[in-house]
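Request: When convenient, would you put together a sequence paired with its structure tokens?
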Amino acid sequence: MKPIYRQLQQQAVGIAARYPLPDFYSDFSGQVRCSRGFFGQDPVVADLWAFVAENIENDFGHGLIHVREVALDAGALVLIEAPQICRDAKSRDHRLRLAQAAGLLHDICRKEKNHAAAGAACARRVLVDYPFSGPDIDAICLAIANHEAFGENQRGGSFTAQLLSDCLYDADKFRWGPENFTRTVWKMLAYRDVPVDRFLTHYPQGMAFLKKIRNTFRTNTGRQYGPQFIDLGIAIGDELYEVLCAWSKE
């Protein structure tokens, strides 16, 4: 990574530290804890996590940290959105397992041209070696195919499939908040070796794209809490842009 980008990332982290965490994590702290606890204890998720750690490309801003956070928030969203089907431990664990499997595998083909479709096809090949039923695999793959912003959103054939798809999408788009400026963008710049002047030129366009994400959340919870993630990201990004413009004039 270019030294200037390391400096800017450090400044972005400092800026982000002045902002609060999104309300999602406090308002649904119980579901967030449940999802995190399950992630650390379920053997199927642990095996998938190990597979992803060995096979995902971890240098493009959508690597291990990203997919783990998506898996955790997707699990929490499932618990929030469908408490009626998560009342007993067996049903709850099954839904969490589906959500976290989708989260872990959704960017397994991130560098491919149509990464959502490619990721769904790859996930289907991977999941046959895990204890998921045919409908479970179909639901996970549909969610992965549907997770790209402004891409085609195929409707699920069941409540479970549609729920999983919407929760994965929203959990992934939560990452376009503060994390976009504290981690993701710098990995992508380093991978592409983007010159600083080009980054500055395209910065407003990137911010405009970010603002469009704000209105795309799909679950009730996502529509209520997702815009705050994006607004926090925009606020951090606006401050960082001032820093970047000042640096360019020196």
About this structure: The longest helix spans residues 220-249. The chain has a mean pLDDT of 94. DSSP finds twelve helices and no strands in the chain.
